[in-house]
Amino acid sequence: MSAAAVTVRPPLWRRLVGFNLLTACVLGVGGWYVGWFAAHGVAGKSIAYFSSIDYNEVSIILAYICGVLGFLIGLGFFNYPLARLRGYPPSLRAKENEGVGRYFGLCTDHKVVGIQYLVGIGFFLFIGGLNAMLIRTELLRPNHQVFPAGTYLTIVGLHGTMMMGMMTSGILGPFGNYFVPILIGARRMAFPRIEALTFWLLMAGGVILETAIFFGGFPTGWTGYAPLNVQSYPGMDCYIIFFALVGISMTLLGLNMIATIVTMRAPGLTWTRLPIFVWGVLTTSALMVLAAPVLIATLGMALLDRAAQTTFFIPSGGGSSYLYQNLFWVFGHPEVYVLALPGFAIVLEILPVFARKPLWGYRLAVAGLLGVSLLSFFVWQHHLFVSGINGDVRPFYMLSTELISIPTGFTFICGMMTLWRGRIRYSVPMLFCLAWFFNFLVGGLSGVFLSDVPSDVTTHGSFFSMAHFHYTIMGGPVFTFFAAIYYWVPKMTGVQLNERLGKIHFWTMFIAFNSTFFPLFIAGFLGQPRRVVTYPLNLQFINDWVSASAFVLGASMLLFLYNFVRSLVFDRVPAPVNPWHSKSIEWQLPSPIPVHNFDRIPVFSGDPYGYGETTGPVAVPAGAPAGSD
Ligand code: HEM
Ligand SMILES: [Cu+2]
């Protein structure tokens, strides 16, 4: 790092010119218009085939594709391949030493990408949350009050799609990218540029999804079923392009994680010494790599059905809309475990630290993660029990679905046994993990009603299933997302988060969450359907209760934001090097962690959960202070 580079900084305007987010936005918008006009020009005049169809569709799709390309060019993603073509040597140094500027562009430091993910995903989850508030505002009254039915559907779709799309990388994005290389004793990810690409694709996607409101929205919810997806407004294209970008981002993220974990572990870090969080990332990545390409292909076919008069999913042309449902859920069910598994792993990673005990049943926990990933490919038809499936195969899917509770149970057993007789410290990260047990249990038990055919026939498509999946995906991954924030942000930033505000945030969120979603089981049993703007008069009290709780839940997010900004921007109390007295390796490094993580690659000599034993940390990198435990 040269001192001169720091002292003689060019003026602000000069620093804004170059490959960064600003240029990317300009070229993104420019690219959009280029695509739009090009398609109009070509389709309108020269190609007879295109002029016979509704070519607006083609121009919108081409506009978005060119927009994404422009965005990537502006960020500088093509500089490296072009430089290599022209014979320059490879370099990883892009933007590594550039101060705040590196957060606004293509940066190959995995720690910067982790923080970019945290802020970027946080932003879009917030937008998704605002949409949830709009939904609950509308449902204050049994009849239409704020939005027409079509707009309501669009808002539900925007909410669900944004949440599902962003949470796919909710834990792997920020915490996987930041900590996996450190936990395995590496200096970087296997493919640093691809790592940055996954992030920026997701951000481009988030913006594209929201632009659906300018094109009439989309009526399909987050599942995008045919034949509605072929019939609806161009807003549908925004959904398709968003989810395809999410799919590409997921596939690349998963590949990168697998390559890193398999090939870049430091000496001594055998498979049975791998931190359980890294196992969680590995199994999740396997799901991503196998499931996401199915999504990309499915959406590609839907796009062709819309723009090029193919009939993959259109019965009148020999296609099948039932095929779309199957393909979607071949992706969709593993997808819900892409959300859930990192949550399991965070819980198992954090419990030993706050119970001061080794992780009980490490191998059982790993078997649980592997078992869940494997089984999740054999259950997708449980989403289609009432969609015309051959009745004789229903019992198979009922069985396979219920079998998943066995490996999931392993996580519960390992967690509970780790807590047993532990010296538990109820710090904020621990509270979020304990809440996970409760929420995921409610989610799992209600899941049994949905996996049993007889009860699913009545609960399918009702608010019962809505309550179930919010317990699993909000009560699970989102709670552990916060656990990870409170646990790791002091290491990521070197600054403490306010503990008291953290506790207030936790209790408000936990109570409001249950008070929002538990009554919805009842609303579901009483017959309130999903995705419908009106409901019977007698359900108003429940709905008003739920809406009021949801607003408190929303307010708890503002409380978190207040804590986050206040602690990191205003108070800036320096965090101790190892505030939780963890034995795991990331806490033995100085905060903030130096650019190349380790001066010398560490050697691992034991598992990372040796609490209660008299030995020190399992791996001490040369030159770093040896933790305070
Ligand atoms: C403040 C918290 C939240 C509230 C109050 C909330 C509320 C709702 C409501 C009322 C609906 C159903 C609307 C309808 O069917 O008519 C819904 C749908 C949905 N929500 Fe949430 N939600 C919240 C957070 C989340 C989170 C964190 C996720 C995922 C990570 C999520 C994922 C979904 C999905 C996938 C749907 C289904 C959309 C569809 O039917 O296509 N929600 N939410
Ligand atoms: Cu499923």
Description:
The structure is a single chain. The model is unreliable at 1-6 and 622-629 (pLDDT under 50). The chain has helices at 3-7, 12-16, 21-46, 48-51, 56-75, 79-85, 110-138, 149-167, 172-183, 192-210, 228-231, 235-263, 276-307, 321-355, 362-375, 394-403, 405-419, 428-451, 453-459, 463-493, 499-525, 540-571. The chain starts with a helix and ends in a 58-residue tail after the last helix. It is an all-alpha fold. It folds into two domains: 18-85, no CATH class; 119-268 and 275-588, Cytochrome C Oxidase, Chain A, CATH 1.20.210.10. The radius of gyration is 25 Å and the shape is globular. It is built from 22 helices and no strands. Bound molecules: protoporphyrin IX containing FE and copper (II) ion (CU).
Briefly, what is this?
The longest helix is centred in the middle third of the chain and has 35 residues, at 321-355. By secondary structure, the protein is mainly α.
Alpha carbon gap, first and last residue: 32 Å
The CATH architecture term of the largest domain is: Up-down Bundle
The CATH topology assignment of the largest domain is: Cytochrome C Oxidase, Chain A
Helix and strand string, N-terminal first?
HHHHHHHHHHHHHHHHHHHHHH
Major beta sheet summary: none
| CATH class label of the largest domain | Mainly Alpha
Small molecules bound:
protoporphyrin IX containing FE, copper (II) ion
Q: What is the gyration radius calculated from CA atoms?
A: 25 Å
Helix content: 55-70%
Total helices: the number is 22
Classify the secondary structure makeup into a structural class: mainly alpha
Shape: globular
Beta-strand share of residues: under 5%
* CATH H level, superfamily name of the largest domain: Cytochrome c oxidase-like, subunit I domain
